[in-house]
Amino acid sequence: MERSLREELVLLWQDLRAIDSVVSSVSLEFDGDDPLRPVMRSIVEKTRGSLTQLHELLSLRGPFDLPEPDDEALELPRPTSRTADG
Hints:
By secondary structure, this protein is mostly helical. It has three helices and no strands.
């Protein structure tokens, strides 16, 4: 069970860091302003705190890293442009 908790924590952390990356990119288009509404920012930060606490707790039995997401996870789905005939 502990192993699966660690694995899920790593995946959730990578998802959160991918969200951070996207929000950071969007922020640049808003002159550095946070594009998230306060309630969403609160959820992101609360999630970050919970994941960090869980990592600290699980690390007591053996340290492990929370890696950054890979390039594939950071790719945003791009809408396909439609042509007049399609």
